[in-house]
């Protein structure tokens, strides 16, 4: 059984080694649940991990994991002692610690750029790992350490790369450097923004209103002349009609 487990482990490690560029020493993030399970099953993590991986490993944890074990009290004191022997990796929650599950999720987010193996018994963290491509999962079952087979997300990611549907991180970086060397990438200046050419100003299209000519003001000492407009009444007799009336009389 031991030989069979090591064969499965070697095959799974090779998958991550050739497809996701994992290299020795393999970095293994360990949380409190894994240490507690190892303590109950009398598993020496420091001794058995290198034998199982058949290579050099680095066991590590984060401050958030240690803080969580401190808050949980004496029941997990043994797991805390085990974790304190491992290297502590810097996490972005130094000032405000979060739960161990959230912290380790942030460490492997973005397709696991630091190539971590994650050793945990936490169900929430396990579900997140299986959804994230390129993250190997380690757990304890039946008193033995097991490296889980590549998740469906990891297999689908590799198949998409082989089909040419995706670009690896290394390929994208090389493409960006080539674009910069060829001058195809325009550097964005932080100066004044250029005004875009738009249509004509709608206010300029309106017809100009004619200015009203100001009334002539009289010179000082001169009176205004009144302009009288005579209106002819429709019923008033004309001069010819009045002359004719005088002749008849």
UniProtKB/TrEMBL annotation:
Its main location: nucleus. Keywords: Nucleus, Ribosome biogenesis, rRNA processing. Involved in rRNA-processing and ribosome biogenesis. GO terms for biological process: rRNA processing. Residues 192-210 form the UTP23 sensor motif region domain. CDD domains: PIN_Fcf1-Utp23-H. Gene3D superfamilies: 5'-nuclease. It comes from Polypterus senegalus. It is found in: Nucleus, Nucleolus. It comes from the Eukaryota. This is rRNA-processing protein UTP23 homolog. Belongs to the UTP23/FCF1 family. UTP23 subfamily. One of its GO terms (cellular component) is small-subunit processome.
């Amino acid at each position: 059984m031991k030989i069979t487990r090591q064969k499965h482990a070697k095959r799974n490690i090779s998958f991550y080694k050739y497809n996701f560029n994992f290299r020795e020493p393999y970095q293994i993030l360990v949380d409190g649940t894994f240490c507690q399970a190892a303590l109950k099953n009398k598993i020496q993590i420091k001794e058995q991990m290198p034998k199982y991986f058949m290579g050099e490993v680095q066991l590590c944890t984060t401050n958030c994991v240690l803080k969580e074990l401190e808050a949980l009290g004496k029941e997990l004191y043994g797991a805390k002692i085990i974790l304190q022997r491992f290297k502590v990796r810097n996490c972005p929650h130094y000032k405000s610690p979060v739960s161990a599950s959230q912290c380790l999720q942030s460490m492997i987010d973005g397709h696991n750029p630091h190539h971590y193996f994650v050793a945990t018994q936490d169900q929430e963290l396990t579900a997140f790992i299986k959804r994230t491509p390129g993250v190997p999962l380690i757990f304890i079952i039946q008193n033995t350490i097991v490296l889980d087979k590549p998740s469906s997300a990891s297999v689908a990611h590799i198949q998409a790369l082989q089909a040419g549907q995706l670009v690896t991180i290394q390929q994208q970086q090389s493409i960006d450097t080539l674009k910069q060397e060829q001058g195809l990438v325009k550097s964005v200046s932080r100066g004044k923004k250029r005004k875009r050419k738009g249509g004509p100003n709608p206010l300029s299209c309106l017809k100009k209103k004619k200015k009203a000519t100001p009334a002539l003001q009289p010179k000082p000492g001169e009176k205004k002349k009144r302009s009288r407009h005579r209106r002819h009444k429709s019923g008033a007799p004309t001069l010819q009609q009045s002359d004719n009336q005088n002749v008849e009389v």
